[in-house]
Structure formats: C-alpha cells, structure tokens
Amino acid sequence: MGDTTPSYLVNKRQGEIFARFHIGSSTPDLPAFGAENNNGTVQKSPFNFGLQKVGTQASLITCNSSLPRNDGSKKSYRPNAVRKMRRRAVFKNGDCNILQSRISKRRLRYLQDIFTTLVDSQWRWTLTIFAIGFVGSWLIFALIWWLIAYTHGDLEEQHLPINQNTSDWIPCVLHISGFTSCFLFSIETQHTIGYGVRTTTEECPEAVFIMCLQSIAGMIIQAFMVGIVFAKMTRPKLRTQTLQFSKNAVICQRDGQLCLMFRVGDMRKSHIIGASIRAQLIRAKKTKEGEVLNNFQTELTVNADGCDGNLFFIWPMTIVHKIDPDSPFYHVSASDLLQERFEIVVILEGTIESTGQTTQARSSYLASEVLWGHRFEPVVYYNKDRQGYEVNYSKFDNNLAVDTPLCSGAELAEFYRIQDLPDSEKQAISSDQTSFLLKSPLASMKNSSGDAKTLNIDDDSETRPFPTDYL
After folding, report:
1. What is the pLDDT of residues 272-314, one digit of tens each?
2. Alpha-carbon separation of residue 395 from 56, 246, 275, 320, 371 (angstroms)
3. Cβ atoms within 10 A of the Cβ of 45, count?
4. Where is pLDDT greater, at 446 or 119?
5. Is residue 263 predicted with pLDDT exceeding 90?
6. Which residues touch 147 (CB under 8 Å, ≥6 apart)?
7. H helices then E strands: how many in the chain?
8. CA 383 → CA 380, 388, 393, distances in Å?
9. What's the pLDDT at 39?
10. What average pLDDT does the structure give for the chain?
11. How far apart are CA 377 and CA 392, in angstroms?
12. CB 252 within 8 A of CB 224
C-alpha cells in the first residue's frame, strides 16, 4: 500500500484480517491474534498468533467484507446481494428431479418391459390395468363360448335348456341360454369356481380345448397381476420412508479440523444390514479447455465415528466429511459459502433385515441448507428405567451454534502451522499491506554436499504466501 493511503484504511483492513482468523473455544486461554491491548490499540504484529473465543454470529458480522480476494476463482460476499439458488437434482424425500423427453419409440420400449412399467406406475393405473385384464379376459372367453354355442345350435328356441329334455338335445355346455350365461361360465372356468350347474360335455371337442386354454390363461393372468401387486407392496423404496436424514448439514470443528456433517437415522427396530453411506457433490466446473460442466459430480470422502463409509447402523449416526486438502471445500470460507451454488447428494444403501432386499435412501443439501458454525444435539441417552439406550427423535434435526473459525480449511491449516512455529522462525520479511510473505529463517543449513548453506532472503523460491486474501 502506498504512503498516501490514510492510516484509518490500513487499520480497518488489518482488523478484517485479524477477525478472519478468530478461532473458537478449542484453546480460549491463548492470546488473541488481532485482539486489543489494555490501552485499546490493536495488536499489529502479524505473527503474534493466538486463539480467541468469538461467537459465530458476531464473527459473521465482522467478516462481512466487500473487499476483493486474491484468488480470482472465489466470489467475495456482497451484503444485500440477491443469491441465486441452485435447482435441486434430488428432492429431500429422495425422488430425483429428472424429466425425460423426446425418447425415440418410448411407448414400445416401455411395453417391452411391461412388468417394470406397471410396478413403477402409480397405484390407480395398476389397479385400472388389473381390472381391465380380468374383465377383458372374461368378456373375450365369454364371446368365444357364445360363438361355440351359436354355431352348434344350442341357442335355438327348441334347443334351449328348458326344451332340452323334450328334444333330447345335447349342448356343448349345459345350461347356456345366452351371452350372460356364457359370461358366467367364463368366470367359473377361469377361476375354477365350479358351481356344478354349467359344465362342458363330450359333444363339442372345441369346447374342451377352449376350457383348457382358458384355465391356463387365467392362471397366467392371475399370477402376473398378483406378482405386480406384491412387487409394489414390497418394494424396498417403501423402506426408505423410515430412514431419516437431517434437515440441514452443519460445518464445525472436530479435533481442530473443519468438518462437514449430517445425520442419518433408522426409526425401525429391524436394522439395515451392511449399511454404507456415500456423498456426491454436484456443482459447475470449468475445464482447462474452457468447457463448462454444469453438473460435475465429485465423490466426497465420508466416515462415521472414525470408521469408513460402512455403518453399524443401530442408532442415529453423524456422518463426517473432513475438510482436508483433498476436499473440494478446502478453500471455501463462511463468506464464500453464502455465494456458492452446489448440491450435496447423500446415498444410504443396505439390505433390509426382515426381507433380505437391497434398499437405497437418498437426500440432498443445497448450499443454503449448510449451517456454518453449528453442531448436532445428542439424541442417544441411556434410560435407566427401561434399561436400554433411548433415541429421542424429536431432537433429530436440532443443532447448536458453536464458535467456529470463519476462514477456509486451507487458511486454518496455515494459521495452525504458523502458530506451531518457534518465535525465532516467525519472521515477516514484507510489511506490504497487500500481502504477507513468510520466508524460511536465516539459519545455516547443510546441503547435499555437506556444506553450510545460508538462505537468501531475496530468493523468491523460498517465499510462501500468507493467506490474507481480504487485504
């Protein structure tokens, strides 16, 4: 910064840098970086590092700055700016927000897999087709029986059942007097009701053949329809109605590291065997060639209680994604989160203990549903009266505001790295207000040949940028 810059602007920008590195209550006894001295002045030494307990809400107010960041790929937070919300790809209930159009030969393709089509269709369509299938088959075979009786002459006046005793007429089917009688006989034959009144005779071979054909067709239709209804009622998808995901995801510190967390629970006593959890980040990405991938998916590494993605799923568990150098959120701060547009899709898979079927439950979190500086309330307690662990699902979505660094994971790691350096190695070699540079200490080191080597403070290869992007 030039000499003509007013001193109050310099102090203001320094204060914003210091506020960005205010840390939560992990070590509240250490001196604060950027805290005020007893005389009311701000500690200006950039390497007098420490931690200070600062409320999340107060820190957010302090950190809301419109100053540009050095990293051009990041969007600085602008107060009162209209935020564009990302359109959700997966709804909270797990349904995918996907609309398919202009499919070539769509009807033919769906009819070729009619069983899956009927299972996936809504109940009203399934029951309608169920009724049409049975009634249609009854009517078709009733018409066939009527044609057999008509061609044999059973429907003539002197050959009707009331006159058969006097005329000694033997019909193809006894007690057939019209289409209604044929319809009733079709139902009895197809479902093997057997009232014992209408029966076939040996007079017409074609009637015997049609009776056998209708019996086989009736069994096939009934098995097909019952299979569809049973498949719809026992779909693993319905098991997901008792699998619950937290309404929001949270970001807070665990063991000194920023972590993205969400909660998942199972409300049934029958457990999910071999449960595994995955998380996918969906957001836009620009390749080196300039191609924009609007829905680029990135796998997030998640675990629960120090284990991998495989869960011993007997009570609600908090799933953790560590924001480390391999995380796509490593360079995202609290202010950046207000402008980010992404969606985190979480997928829980496992085998239903009672049925042995595989099920998959899904949910998602938009950037607006990620709470920075919160953690979940405990929901599992030991009930001494009932002698067992009790899960209070009324607190499943509850979270608490906790003191959390507002900087990104990368900046926090750099902060802790410098914090752990000896005082002799904390040497600022640039007082420029636009950036801080940390150089290796002026100490004698041994090179590969064994000779002493003195570092040159003007050697740019030894400089490392200090993360003060709000300057």
Report:
1. 888 899 999 999 999 999 999 989 999 999 988 777 768 888 8
2. 22, 10, 23, 19, 17
3. 10
4. 119
5. yes
6. none
7. 10, 18
8. 9, 5, 15
9. 52
10. 76
11. 10
12. no
246 vs 399: CA distance, rounded Å: 10
Amino acid at 353: E
What is the secondary structure of 236-251 as a DSSP string?
A: GGGGGGGEEE-S-EEE
Q: What are phi and psi of 307, to 5 degrees?
A: -100, 180
As a whole number, mean pLDDT of residues 1-21 equals 47
Q: Dump the DSSP string for 73-114.
A: TSPPP-TTPPPPPPPPSB-TTS-B-------TTHHHHHHHTH
Question: Parallel, antiparallel, or unpaired: how do β-strands 370-372 and 249-254 relate?
Answer: parallel
The answer to whether the CB of 433 falls within 8 A of the CB of 469 is: no
Whether the Cβ atoms of residue 426 and residue 45 lie closer than 8 Å to each other:
no
Q: Please, what is the Cα angle at 169 between 167 and 174, to 5 degrees?
A: 125
Q: Which has more pLDDT, 38 or 238?
A: 238
Residue 85 — very low, low, confident or very high, per pLDDT cuts 50/70/90? Answer: low
Upper half-sphere CA count for residue 263 (Cβ side, 13 Å):
22
Question: Any idea which residue has 């088959």 for tokens?
Answer: 137
First to last CA, the chain: 10
Contact 297, 280 (CB under 8 A): yes
The token pair at 39 is 């005389």
The percent of residues in the chain predicted with pLDDT above 90, rounded, is 34
* pLDDT 10s digits, 377-409: 999 999 998 889 999 999 999 999 999 999 999
CA 228 to each of CA 2, 130, 367: distance values in angstroms, whole numbers, following the listed order: 78, 9, 40
Q: How many residues does the chain have?
A: 471
Give me the long-range contacts of 432-437 (CB less than 8 A, separation at least 24).
Answer: 432/1, 433/1, 433/5, 433/10, 433/13, 433/14, 433/471, 434/1, 434/471, 435/70, 435/465, 435/466, 435/468, 435/471, 436/46, 436/465, 436/466, 436/468, 437/463, 437/464, 437/465, 437/466
| CA separation for the pair 198, 193 (Å, rounded) | 11
Q: Is the pLDDT of residue 35 over 80?
A: no
Buried b (16+ CB within 10 A) or exposed e, 356-366: eeebebbbbbb
The DSSP string of 285-331 is: EE-TTS-EEEEEEEEEP-BBTTB-SEE--SS-EEEEEE-STTSTTTT
Identify whether the C-beta of residue 406 lies closer than 8 Å to the C-beta of residue 338: no
Give the CA angle between residues 84, 333, 97 to the nearest 5°. Answer: 40
Q: How confident is the model at residue 86 (pLDDT cuts 50, 70, 90)?
A: low
